[in-house]
Amino acid sequence: xxxxxxxxxxxxxxxxxxxxxxxxxxxxxxxxxxxxxxxxxxxxxxxxxxxxxxxxxxxxxxxxxxxxxxxxxxxxxxxxxxxxxxxxxxxxxxxxxxxxxxxxxxxxxxxxxxxxxxxxxxxxxxxxxxxxxxxxxxxxxxxxxxxxxxxxxxxxxxxxxxxxxxxxxxxxxxxxxxx
Amino acid sequence: xxxxxxxxxxxxxxxxxxxxxxxxxxxxxxxxxxxxxxxxxxxxxxxxxxxxxxxxxxxxxxxxxxxxxxxxxxxxxxxxxxxxxxxxxxxxxxxxxxxxxxxxxxxxxxxxxxxxxxxxxxxxxxxxxxxxxxxxxxxxxxx
Lengths: 179, 143
Fold this sequence. Notes:
A: about 25% helix; B: mainly alpha; about 0% strand
């Protein structure tokens, strides 16, 4: 939950963006997003932003300043006309395809609503990392990292599936694992 | 072509320079500084060319054949081919000074030694990567 102290125009935009991350707007919250020029409540933790940078404030908020705000512990996916609730640790990898975003788990594949970028941001702390333009992998399910030529890698998952880490994202993998 | 990693080609150039410097130890003592610099640069250029060809060829390898065994096999195959080419050149273009002194074997051994050391380092990096992965996973599970 977060309190918003800003102009109506920014309020609507912020509310919309925060809803994507399931962050509720509540005037009683101990955390406030305050547009520059507005009064900062003395008894609250305030994040002050310029109107033009309101998205940066959202990014900062969802990237871990208040990780407890992000109770994104589940994912709702659709498979065979049935909804299923998955925990992040159950998800092997996420893939963007022509049918939208698919979450792969040992029990099957599920169509999910949000974007890859959303999961990349909000599930980074859960071990998810972007490995190419269209895939996000859960490192907890990676069994082996196979080096390949031209600075690429192949990740072999617990279920035997192999995913390519492109040259562009291999540096991110090395940084994440402190290789 | 877009898969070719320019950094690796540059690294090959510097590896070539390094080998060139090491090989100076086996060159006749009467070579001038200019000749030595030229031969080191030539070695660097050879490294660059080998790196470029290697990157070009390996970029064409399908990712579906990727596994650790294949990777190290191809790596060593490349090292073997490159060394064979160098030996071939040494035989085809006789360097009288080296021939007379019977010094071509140490040259080959030096090149082979450097290539083997590079491969050993590569394998160590592979093992280290797996260890880092396990360490990361253990850290995540603790959280």
